[in-house]
Amino acid sequence: MRLFLLLLLSLSLFGRDNPFFPANENDKKITTSNKIEILKPYTTQTIALPNSARAIKAVIIRYQNLDGSIKEEEVVLNNSIDWHEPFILSHKSPSKKSNTKKRKVKTIVSDFISFTIDKKILRIHTKDKLLQNFLLTSPHRVVLDFKRETSFKPKIYSLKKAPFTKIRMGNHDGYYRVVIELDGQYRYKLDSSKEDYTVVCY
């Protein structure tokens, strides 16, 4: 009996005040949301510092993930600065020169289906009926099955037009499958007309 009481007392010493809260603050569950927020595309922001500033130590970017969770990324800089000159935070490649030229649209034509890629929109032109469509992850890819009795060797089309990296096609019994591989994590929306299907990634 005495041994049992000693054991019970030693266990209570290692117990937490409230077992319903995580022991480690870093193990807290991230709050997520499926609410789609429509935002304007970010371009450029000018940031002015006070006249007492003499060095920039780090830049912290707070961003929202696809699942709605909020994260932070810190970039350590540790450089001297001249406070007279403002900082310009830009979301575009410095190597790309802005021009008014017509953007390039990529088109792939197959026997009974064709694809046109324009920015984050992929248009599919076919007379075949769409049976189903869904999204797979790791990596992210959009899968579409079209009804047709056909036989062909698997086809792979390299796109390299973000967010689309590749289109793969393969035939099955009574249908053929189109797999659109993406360069990251996206949601997608599928719109349809009489002979066209439009895949939009966001």
Major β-sheet annotation: 5 strands, antiparallel
Number of strands: 14
Q: How many domains comprise the coordinates?
A: 2
User: Which segments are poorly predicted (pLDDT under 50) over 5 or more consecutive residues?
Assistant: 16-34
Q: Write down the Rg.
A: 27 Å
CATH secondary-structure class of the largest domain: Mainly Beta
Mean pLDDT score: 80
Structural class: mainly beta
Global outline = elongated
Give me the strand/helix succession.
HEEEEEEEEEEEEEE
Distance between the terminal alpha carbons, to the nearest Å?
66 Å
According to CATH, what is the topology of the largest domain? Immunoglobulin-like
Second rung of CATH, namely the architecture of the largest domain: Sandwich
Strand order of the largest sheet: 5-6-7-14-13
Summarize the amount of helix as a percent range. under 10%
